[in-house]
Amino acid sequence: MATRHLTMEDFQGIMFAAVGGDGANFVSDTDQEFEDLGYDSLALLEAGGRIEREYGISLDDSVLTGAKTPRSFVDAVNTAIAAGTAA
């Protein structure tokens, strides 16, 4: 069975859910900083919690505070998934 990974589209949906459907579309520009997209640290914490529950992983705080762009966040999550960082 293939390991499930977080796609940019999945992350976009999770971020929209985290902020109540009112957010920027970053799928086409994955290297723009979250701050420039209008997302704050609370939105990332909420998204991180949703990802942990959905993917059965535990994310290090550095993922939630260190990732500055959607691409870096998704890459860090997929690294945790590949490492099997189970919750």
Verbal overview:
With 87 residues, the protein is mostly helical. The chain contains five helices and no strands. It has helices spanning 8-18, 34-37, 41-55, 61-66, 70-83.
Largest sheet: none
The whole-angstrom Rg is 12 Å
Order of helices and strands: HHHHH
Shape verdict: globular
Number of strands: 0
Mean pLDDT: 86
Q: What is the terminal-to-terminal distance?
A: 20 Å
Question: Could you tell me the strand content as a percent range?
Answer: under 5%
Low-confidence stretches: none
How many helical stretches? 5
Secondary-structure class: mainly alpha
Relative helix content:
55-70%
Q: What is the gist of this entry?
A:
This protein is an all-alpha fold. Helices cover 57% and strands 0% of the residues.
Chain-wise SSE layout:
Layout (H helix, E strand, L loop, with lengths): L7 H11 L15 H4 L3 H15 L5 H6 L3 H14 L4
Offer a few descriptive terms.
87 residues, mainly alpha
